[in-house]
Amino acid sequence: MSDENGMAPGQVIKVLAGVTVFIVVAIWLLAKLATSGFNVDAEVMTKEAVAARLKPVGLSVVSDAPPGMRNGEQVFKAICISCHGTGLAGSPKFGDAAAWAPHLAKGWDTLVDHALKGFNAMPAKGGSPDLTDDEVKRAVAYMGNAAGAKFTEPPLGGAGGAAAVADPAVVGKKIYESLCITCHAAGVAGAPKFGDKAAWAIRLKPGLDEVIKIATKGLNAMPPKGGYTGSDAEFRAAVEYMVNNSK
Length: 247
Ligand code: HEC
Ligand code: HEC
Known about the structure:
This protein has 247 residues and is mainly α. The protein has helices at 9-45, 47-63, 72-84, 97-104, 108-117, 133-146, 162-166, 168-184, 197-203, 208-217, 232-244. Among the domains are: 65-146, Cytochrome c-like domain (Cytochrome Bc1 Complex, Chain D, domain 2); 162-244, Cytochrome Bc1 Complex, Chain D, domain 2. The radius of gyration is 33 Å and the shape is elongated.
């Protein structure tokens, strides 16, 4: 039927018919893909659709942990990411070791101080005053470590967190009994004794806030925060517990 140089007419017709069918099917498939493709895009791009996709993620990040109990990653993803995620406003970008190097060189205490109180375009607590100090510290540790530092996130739990919000008196008692008691029960090294009305009355003359400020910084044999490493709010609860039981 055929030689080495060409095809017989019957074969040519068969091949042409095959190619035509193939092209028609291909065009039909492409058309179908294009229309359904456009439909999907339109759905994805509406603001409502985007918000609906983002919402469950955002909510779970924030609400999985009670106030005060969020870890560094959760705080970062809920708050700090809005600037540090992309390096907005000149902020050091998350995970960018070179951008973070000059910041990390300042040391943990300065970084925490700036994160808590604000620094140039960096707002205090990233603009979220409801964060506890420990939550901010955890976020600083999380971001710092992602850029090569070796910080330790202040631990969750302990005497703090949800309990501190629920009942400061319980938290204060717990901290007193686990720590402050070692000096304040017996009045070691001149510490005002627990329950000693006269000793505490003299201390309280400048006002409770002033006394807490002094005790936070430390005073002679009284170490800063009495050696307590938790949040300021928790330390305050411990002072109040001692003061309220010495009236
Ligand atoms: C509105 C934007 C914004 C948000 C939100 C934000 N930051 Fe920043 N942050 C900045 C900017 C800008 C800088 C750079 C400031 C500079 O060095 O002048 C910065 C710098 C820092 C630094 C380095 C400070 C220093 O002394 O070098 C730390 C630590 C930090 N931010 C922690 C945080 C934490 C923790 C959060 C979330 C709780 C947060 N930031 C949220 C904008 C932001
Ligand atoms: C290592 C011993 C020690 C521990 C532990 C300790 N304190 Fe004290 N504290 C002292 C001494 C000593 C003073 C008195 C300092 C002075 O006046 O020279 C003092 C004073 C204070 C004062 C009064 C500050 C003022 O303005 O006069 C407060 C408030 C206080 N402590 C709270 C606490 C709390 C809360 C804890 C536990 C978290 C604690 N302390 C743990 C030794 C201690």
